[in-house]
Amino acid sequence: MAAYRVRVRTGTAPAAGTSDAIAVTLVGTRGRSPRTPLDRWGPDFVCGAVTEYTVHVPRPLGRLLLVQVHKGPCGGLPESSWYLETLSVWGQFGDTAGDTAEHGDSEDSGEEEEDSEDEVTEDEGTEDEGTGDSEGTGDTDEEEEPEEEELEEEPEEEEEPEDTEGDIGTATTGDPDDAAHAGPFHFPCYRWLEGYGTWELPEGTATTPAMERHPRLQRQRRRHLVQQRRRYRLAPFAPGLPWALPHGTPLDPDLSYSLPKATAFYLRGSAANLEAKLRGFLARPSSWPSVEAMTRVFRCFHTPVTEYVVQHWQEDAFFGEQFLSGVNPVLLRRCPRLPPNFPVTAPMVAPSLGPGTSLGREMEAGNIYLADYGVLDGLPTALIDGRPTFVAAPLCLLHQRPDGELRPLAIQLSQHPGPDSPIFLPGDPPWLWALAKAWVRSAEFHVHEGLTHLLRAHLLGEVFALATLRQLPPQHPVFKLLVPHTRFTVQIGALARRFLLNPGGVFDRAVALGRRGLLALVARGLRELRWRSLVLPRDLRHRGVTGTARHHFGHDATKVWGAIRRFVGALLALFYPSDGAVREDPELQAWVREIFRRGFLGRRRSGVPSRLDTVRGLVTFVTTIIYTCSAHHAATNSGQFELSAFPPNAPAAMREPPPRSKAALSEREFLAALPAMNTTATVLAVLWVLRNEPMDLVRPQTHPKPTPKTTLGPQNHPKTNPKPHRIHKLHPNPPQNHLKNHPGTPNPPQNHPGTPNPPQNCPAVLWVLRKELMDLVRPQTHPKTHPGTPNPPQNHPKTPNPLQNHPKTTPKPTPNPTGSTNSIQAQSHPKNHPGTPKPPQKPP
User: What is the domain partition of the chain in residue ranges?
Assistant: First the structure.
């Protein structure tokens, strides 16, 4: 007779406990235990409970492989969901019976054929892009589009039958290290268990398919992936866009917002709309009477940065600084020669350059930059309040002075030069020059929201997240690296399609492109996207801004990228000692192939790898995904409200066509071209919701400290505290629950399935009680992000100019065992763009 001690940890989220009957079956290399109910006197699995039980078996089970968790009805009580964090098992010490861990046992000796996803395959070719190291310059003339079959509904896959062997196997050969099988064995779950059924939790040690020797675990991996592909089926949302979950698909709680985050999200939206309604802005489709009147809408949304924007939006220095450290710092490029459709002459810009230099000299010195918005040319626009709106595709030439200031030299509001497309200069009448800059800022708003933010940070991030869930089992080391950074990625994508991209949604009501134009922009942007633009060092080199002065985004992002890459490289080297190990990992190759096909639509000229052949290529690929879902998203999302809410600085919908002459304008004519009051209020409310941090954010340097492993046997037993997994070498003091025993979400989304829907009619009391409600739902004991998330740079100290006076150095991120946004996040983003002071928690 042998005994095993089982410790069960229930999550701390609201309603995480359950009253259902719980039982477990332990499965080891020499058999399985009887189904054992977990029951003590009183409630067992309440919120935050850590309970221990004893499981008796006739003989030791050897090395434990997995635990089956059974959930069934309990008397006449209704079914209740259960958030199970982890399950740990300790066994009898000193067992020296036989074990067949490496050769299979009497029950699991029959290895079945490996499953493969039943999709139409295509010739992957022999191009060098597959290594993940090439920059993908897109030299091929013809673009290979996906096969027609790939656009059809995904085929069904047959699932392997569950193993139903008897209770206990028989020992065969001896194992001198069998005493190590006393444990502890850790079986992470970190998800909601809904309904009645059986869930299999494999032992948490990170393994690749080549490292998984036992037939039972091999079958479990394949069975899990088939179930995941059935659970998360993909479909095209719109022509030319990355694939996603079908529109309207209800999200299971493992992908949904946590209850604190959902509550705060909807309360913020309701409060912002309520404030706009109370002040009457949403009912005024008219122009602003003056620029001064615009500032009134900011009284309840005041931050230090918005105040700075209101005071300095007309300054050329502030206009130029936003290209380097604004919310879209990925467009500007060095200009060694003028494009043929931008006929700027040296005499035009001589007054702005000053004496002793010329346009040609400044180009040779590398001081001339170009912002080209040609991607907007010819896109359809929407009708707002019954009148047309307009979007330009401008070209903006800028000059960096010796002191580092970046100032505009010339602006052309069309890609087609001619008499009707004049070139505007700083010496033009003040309101005309202000209007020309406003048109550039409007184009910047559309490119930022449609391509830099929506496409790169969300739509592609959603493909990364779903491909990871569908093609990688929880034991895979790449799964463990990525899961923290894709937290809530699928949920926010679903919300965007529901509220922003739906017909009649925010884009149709407040943005010039509207839904139709935005989808066309995203499709065009994805068609023109190149892999090098996602790999930060290559992108900076390609745009020629590597050494640009005051490029605070580039300076800080390079440090964050380097920290992520060093950590990813060190960790993956433990599992992929050679390039051959990468090539021979079928799960990894299926994951990359799905990202290539579903995210980038199989376009080879994009340079996106369709397979990985080297360790270096794998490290670059994983680093790019983590950076995109975390640091890139933070830089392009968190400063939206501060820099884009004031209409003249980022007009969402221009109501007059671009000026066709250089006649002087008045302030009234300038305001007539800007968005109306109701449009401004709608955009402001949306940006206010997006800029606020999640209620369950785990800040840098606040992760729980590692605790020594708990031992249940004799303190001096040599096998009680076994040597840590070799992955612990990355940390001098390895945490107990990291990659070795943590395949699930380290900072799990612990919201109850009953997450509230956005209120239709928000009562006015919500505005009064906003702070109290937020404090009430703020989780004081929420599970922290796993101590493996690289810490983003800290917010820089407040300065009079939050963009120009940004320090050139930031605290170096600390690489930790699980990666980064989202957060992957969990996505733990820097909540402000570099140089942006941290906003207050609530408006004054």
Answer: 2-116+159-231
Q: What is the Cα gyration radius of the chain?
A: 29
Closest among 443, 468, 495 to 757, alpha carbons compared? 495
Q: Tell how strand 423-424 and strand 185-193 pair up.
A: unpaired
> Tens digits of per-residue pLDDT, 300-345?
667 788 889 999 999 999 999 999 999 999 999 999 999 999 999 9
Kindly write down the DSSP assignment for every residue of 267-335, as one continuous string: HHHHHHHHHHHHTTGGG--S--S-HHHHGGGGTTS--HHHHHHHHHTT-HHHHHHHHHHSS-TTS-EE-
How far does the chain reach from its first CA to its final CA, in angstroms?
Answer: 67
- The answer to whether residue 378 scores a pLDDT higher than 60 is yes
CA 461 to chain centre: 5
Proportion of the chain above pLDDT 90, given as a percent = 52
- In 3D space, the residue among 183, 24, 190, 63 whose CA is nearest the CA of residue 742 turns out to be 190
Whether the pLDDT of residue 688 is over 60: the answer is: yes
The pLDDT tens digits of the residues spanning 356-368 come to 999 999 999 999 9
Comparing CA positions, the residue from 416, 369, 409 lying closest to residue 392 is 416
d(Cα 683, Cα 645) in Å, to the nearest integer?
A: 7
Judged on CB neighbours under 10 Å (0-12, 13-18, 19+), 307 is middle
Q: In whole angstroms, how far apart are CA 201 and each of 186, 204, 360, 486, 728? A: 9, 8, 67, 21, 22
The better pLDDT of the pair 590, 696 is held by 590
pLDDT exceeds cutoff 50 at 708: no
CA proximity to 490, closest of 228, 15, 824: 824
Alpha carbon of 518 to those of 152, 241, 454, 511, 722: distances in Å? 24, 11, 10, 9, 56
Helix, strand, coil percent values for the chain (each to nearest 5): 35, 10, 50
Indicate the Cα dihedral angle 93, 94, 98, 101, nearest 10°.
Answer: 50
**Token pair recorded at residue 406:** 């970046």
The answer to whether the pTM exceeds 0.85 is no
Q: Which residues contact 350 (CB under 8 A, 6 or more apart)?
A: 358, 359
CA dist 184 and 428 (Å) reads 75
Of 382-396, 571-585, 688-702, 707-721, the range with the lowest mean pLDDT is 707-721
Task: Confirm if 531 and 607 have CB atoms less than 8 A apart.
Answer: yes
For residue 394, say if its preceding peptide bond is cis, omega within 30 degrees of 0: no
For Cα atoms 635, 319, 393, give the angle at the middle one, nearest 5 degrees: 85
The dihedral built from the CA positions of residue 112, 116, 122 and 127, taken in this order, carries a sign that is: negative
pLDDT band of residue 620 (cuts 50, 70, 90) is very high
Give, as one character, the DSSP assignment of residue 631.
I
In this prediction, residue 278 carries a pLDDT of 38
Cβ contact 332:323 at 8 Å: yes
Cβ 59 vs Cβ 29: under 8 Å? no
Amino acid letter, 384: I
Q: How far is CA 473 from the centre of its chain?
A: 19
- Neighbouring residues of 384: CB distance < 8 A, sequence distance ≥ 6: 509, 510, 512, 653, 655, 676, 679
**Cβ–Cβ < 8 Å for 336, 844:** no
Please enumerate in sequence order all residues whose Cβ is within 8 A of that of 794, keeping only pairs 6 or more positions apart, or say none. Answer: 700, 810, 811, 830
DSSP letters, 744-769, are: S-SS-----TTPPPPPSS--THHHHT
- What pLDDT, on a 0 to 100 scale, did the predictor assign at position 158? 54
Which of 80-94, 287-301, 602-616 shows the lowest per-residue confidence on average (mean pLDDT)?
A: 287-301
How many C-beta neighbours within 10 Å does residue 125 have?
12
Tokens of 591: 């994951």
Topology adopted by domain 2-116+159-231: Lipoxygenase-1 (2.60.60)
